[in-house]
Amino acid sequence: KPKHPEYPPSPKKPWPIIRNVPHVPTSRPWLTYTAWGKEHNNKPLHLEALGQHMIILNNVDDAIELMEKRSSIYSDKPDMPLMTLMGLDFNATFLRYGNIWREHRKAFQLGFRKEMIGTYHPIIELETNKFLRRLIAHPKDLKEHCQFFPASIVMSIVYGHELESSEDPILVTTKRAIQLGNPTIMTGALLMITFPVLLNIPRWLPGGGFHDVAARSRKAISEMIEMPYAIVKDRMQNGVDKPSLVQDLLEKQEAKGVDDESVLKNVAGSAFGAGVDTTDCALGTLFLALSLHPEVQKRARSEIASVTGMTRLPVFNDRPSLPYVEAICRELRRWRPEAPAGVPRATSQDDIYQGYFIPKGSMIFFNTWGMTHNPDIYPDPEEFKPERFLNTDGSLNDDDCHLTFGFGRRICPGRYLASDIVWLAAVRIIATLELSDPKDPATGESIDLDKHQYSNETLSHPPRFICTIKSTEYADNLLRSEEE
Ligand code: HEM
Predict the structure, then answer these.
(1) Ligand 1: lining residues by beta carbon, under 6 Å
(2) What is the sign, positive or negative, of the torsion defined by CA atoms of 435, 438, 440, 446?
(3) FRET pair for 335, CA 20 to 30 Å: which of 15, 149, 292, 325?
């Protein structure tokens, strides 16, 4: 008689001994999970490979039940030695559930809770206008602008450091670290995360090249954390008062007599590591969706005109009066969730769900893509249709699609900031610019999403593209009025 109930059903019949090893998807796993979900009524699914159990959730109700209602069991992270090897274990996203993670979370809460974000609005407004000016001046550098803009906001908030140009040594160091510290640039990374035993391959064997990549990543990440931190410390020692999250946390810590700076440094680094690339993905999707859909821009522009009369730039106070613009922001995250396969969790004890056994240490994958592309909830899921978030009277419905920020105790602590950055960028872009004709910059071909696909990474980026960026008749006046 088995000692425990059955595991949830497996989408593929396990092989003898190696079980589901051949079935673990390595390319755009979210699409495979979604297809399996369809075949199994979107019930939780189970894979087992090299002793590792994996549970795939395709249904939002299961995700809420497990990660929110049973959060004491489902808030852990898998032990990911690859991340440690690469120096990524500073990042709160990968911390095991426990006291160190709690300290990180408290610091994030202090800096990024909803009530705090309003104090950052002047920074977001200033940086958004600079972003618009850069887009108008150098439209071909769209990708670089989309990276620089969130980086400059996060850098200002966290370190009080204003980035002047993309040559700023801090930005160069940070970009290098983010690039080198992206595990998916390594062949077989997904397999190494799932099966850490592969990390025992020595450097000199074929497949052992990851050791050198990891060493470079560790060095770059350490520089990324130390460099801007040293600037804040320097300023404080020289009596220069420039508000920043790091200064605030340091002062609070000093008042309590705590002198361990590791949490502080790592929180600041995590905000960068977890906040910039994600927001860059969201902005890329914003430009792609708008340039593919001039009719969406037109409707949003007329909504904005009805509120501002196009005599001023939209401001955060206008947000409740602009439901269609809000619906665009919701549709962006639904249509192309930035982390389409979610971010893996782990169970910290055995559990039984719907009569099935989920053992301690299982990896839990919440398949965001499957949830936001479920045709029963979102008909024609591949279509970009902001109006799906509106009631017939034009007001917003109750679905804010914020599941793309995760669930429960590990939900993204930067979600309010991210939402405000993307909203202000969207509304000011629509008020001042007309976007059209997205093209592959290398071939000049029009973007066709069947051919020009989003990347196969945990954070799935839009294909590289440029688009025609034309100032609207109001652009100059609006931007000038703000700058005077
Ligand atoms: C569009 C932008 C963003 C998206 C789509 C996004 C998405 C996510 C997701 C899906 C998770 C995992 C949640 C879970 O396991 O339930 C996460 C975690 C996290 N995010 Fe974000 N994020 C964004 C922006 C930001 C920003 C701006 C910051 C910081 C300033 C940030 C900081 C973090 C941190 C620190 C974690 C780890 C939290 C933990 O494990 O306790 N994110 N984010």
Answers:
(1) 92-93, 105, 108, 112, 154, 270-271, 274-275, 278-279, 282, 338-339, 343, 404-407, 410-414, 417-418
(2) negative
(3) 149
